[in-house]
Amino acid sequence: MLLLLLLVNSVMDLLSFVESVRVAVELLFCWFVSLAFLMPVDSLCFGEDIFGCSFSSVFIIIIIIIIIIIIIIIIIIIIIIVIIIIIIIIIIIIIIIIIIIIIIIIIITIIFIIIIGIIIIIIIIIIIIIIIIIIIIIIIIIIIIIMIIIIIIIIIIIIIIIIIIITIIIIISDSQWIKTYALSIGAGSKVYQSFKKIGSPSTWKVDKCNGNFCPNFFRHPILDFWKHLPIDE
């Protein structure tokens, strides 16, 4: 029981550390975005709710684009690898067929010269044709199996992409749940306290944010999606 409690405690500490790093990285990202738009930091990342800065539309779009690019690259690499494998298999099979044909021709010549005659030559030629047909059928079956595997992999990757996009949409639509979860495990609390007072109170005004005080940048057209995040008076 003690070992189990220690394990649970370690896992919680690890989650807290990862969440703290995430908050710090997202705050740094907001600073870069503020530089890109030539806007002051407190116009993008306000201090009273550090998690409000964590799910800006720009950040989410960049994450989605990066994920899609990575998945496309993985699909291309898998297809290239499969094509290379198919080519190698075909080359090996062709070499084997050529060797078999040469050996059979030598055997046929020796038998023809020494013992049998035209009848055995015809029989051997028929056998060679049957062997070649069987090998061709095997090659076709292998190619079909490989193509089925490729299709299954692509379907799985598409399903993963859909799951990721749905998850991101759920996260965007329920950011208050994420904030509650992050605060419940104590993650990023020091960062939250350190940057709690970013921004000037003189820039605040009373707005229709559930009757609370809100910074005037809530009216910015780019950041209008933040207007549902109230700041306590």
From TrEMBL:
It comes from Octopus bimaculoides. Keywords: Membrane, Transmembrane, Transmembrane helix. This is Uncharacterized protein. The chain crosses the membrane at residues 23-46, 58-81, 87-112, 119-142, 148-172.
